[in-house]
UniProtKB/TrEMBL annotation:
Family: Belongs to the short-chain dehydrogenases/reductases (SDR) family. FabI subfamily.
Recorded catalytic activity of this chain's protein: a 2,3-saturated acyl-[ACP] + NAD(+) = a (2E)-enoyl-[ACP] + NADH + H(+)
Active site: 155, 165
Organism: Leptospirillum ferrooxidans (strain C2-3)
Protein name: Enoyl-[acyl-carrier-protein] reductase [NADH]
Keywords annotated in UniProt: Fatty acid biosynthesis, Fatty acid metabolism, Lipid biosynthesis, Lipid metabolism, NAD, Oxidoreductase
Length: 273
């Protein structure tokens, strides 16, 4: 097998803001680590004191981790969005990239039937998981360099019905559409906006979906490449999207799922060549 060589400094000198690190298993942390490996700098956001403690512990394990700026951000709080921008200004930071790795739905909406979705649950999932990308982009624009990039994490449940994903699938569909509209609006400043559709990986948010363990197993058995997806595989595509290698790509949705999305049907007894 060909050796995979990573760490080509494709983000050298670039400053990336990464949202959505709940703990060391979060997709966002894998992205932050990959940004550092590629020579970039990071600013992180957290939601609540528990996450701040988790992030500080993770950063303590990496060289220079104690000097990373870690700022509060609840995307439902306009004041926090505004003060994030002012803090970047005070610190003299201009961003070359933003990673949106944020989603939320009430646990009860990720269990029963979609038809039973409550109004409150629908609106909350939309606000946190989709509108937040618009709000975050707008808030950070004054601190973004022209030619920067925004990447949002999404999931196949937006395009196809995935049992129990329910209201989150509809919110992800809105998020993907927002990516295209933002790509158009921000294209004037050559800021690219793309979404990355990851296959299921075990994180706190994933586990909130009923039957998530079965989902991970089924997907790895039925993908083109029959292996479990890892967060670092997702993170490496995220850093690529943030890098100049993807400077001609915007408004795009890229599946990182070992080819699961490409299959229409799996028949018993059929297997790859
Ligand atoms: N885990 C998977 O299988 C998978 C697959 C495809 C896409 N995704 C997406 O990846 C992203 C990251 O999820 P993860 O799996 O790493 O789980 P995670 O639980 O580690 O991260 C989710 C993050 O969303 C943040 N968040 C929720 N509400 C927020 C709010 N109001 N303000 C600010 N932040 C808020 C949480 O604080 C947390 O850090 C999500 O968009 C998720 O939908 C995950």
């Amino acid at each position: 097998m060909t050796e995979t060589v990573l760490g080509n400094q494709m983000l050298k000198g670039r400053h990336i803001l990464v949202t959505g690190i709940a703990n060391r298993w979060s997709i966002a942390w894998a992205v932050a680590e990959a940004v550092l490996r590629e020579g970039g700098k990071i600013t992180l956001t957290y939601q609540g004191e528990t996450q701040l403690g988790n992030i500080r512990k993770i950063l303590a394990d990496i060289p220079g981790g104690d000097s990373v700026l870690v700022e509060p951000l609840d995307v439902c709080d306009e004041e926090q969005l505004t003060s994030l921008c002012s803090t970047l200004e005070k610190a003299g930071i201009f961003l070359d990239g933003v990673v949106h790795s944020i989603a939320f739905a009430l646990r009860e909406e990720l269990d029963g039937h979609f038809v039973d979705t409550s109004r409150k649950g629908y609106l909350l999932a939309q606000e946190i998981s989709a509108f937040s990308l618009v709000a975050l982009s707008k808030a950070l624009l004054p601190r973004m360099n022209d030619g920067g990039a925004i990447v949002a994490m999404t999931y196949l449940g937006s395009e196809r019905v995935v049992p129990h994903y329910n209201v989150m699938g509809v919110a992800k569909a809105a998020l993907e559409s927002a990516v295209r509209y933002l790509a158009y609006d921000l294209g004037g400043r050559k800021i690219r906006v793309n979404s990355l559709s990851a296959g299921p990986v075990k994180t706190a948010s994933g586990r909130a979906i009923k039957g998530f363990g079965d989902m991970v197993k089924t997907v790895s058995e039925q993908s083109a490449i029959k292996e479990q997806l890892t967060v670092s595989e997702v993170a490496d595509v995220a850093v690529s999207l943030l890098s100049p290698y993807f400077r001609g790509v915007t408004g795009e949705l890229i599946h990182v799922d070992k080819g699961y999305h490409a299959l229409g049907m799996v028949l018993p007894g059929s297997s790859p060549a």
